[in-house]
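Q: What would this chain look like folded?
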Amino acid sequence: AEAPHTVAHGLGKVPAWVIIKDRDGGSYPHWNVWHPGYQPDQTYLNYQLFLQLTNGSNNQGWTRADTGMTTNLFALPVYQYTENGKSYIAYIFNSVEGYSKFGSYNGNAGTDGPMVYTGFRPAWVIIKRADSTSSWWMQDTKRSTSNVADEYLIADGAQAESTYTAIDFVSNGFKVRNTSSSFNSGNLVYAAFAEASFKYSNAR
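A: My prediction, written as structure tokens:
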């Protein structure tokens, strides 16, 4: 695997979700997504997804995340340091207790799907099947105000909001309520955010 090429991030923790994009529209215009939740190659941890595509994960485009993702640094995609004069944007996340969670789970293809623990009630979640083709599934509590949540958007397409019975938002995570392969088959990764940090929120 390609040796790690790194940039400082200042989070103080090892990144749990990285998104990098070439702002200049070069020859490699992908929204590259790296996450530790699905890494079949445990030696190099270099599997990636593309936020604008339905493709399953591949290990062709990221430098060695095993040594490149640290408490101070994040590793770059292979093609996003070889084009001189390009401008990039990066979003680097890690889990914050009571506010954000980045993880993975296995689907069971049943209507009584997995319960995914986040430690808070999510206000927004994005889910992607990592081992096969599927859309990036997004739901939130502003549009779906009661369970089962059904209003959804996808990150990899331009279509308008649609409805499909999908998940319950519960006090400590989300519960899968449908058999769709987009969020209940194979190996899935997710990012979830609370509306406000439960750990630091005030009563009213």
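The helical segments are 65-68, 181-184.
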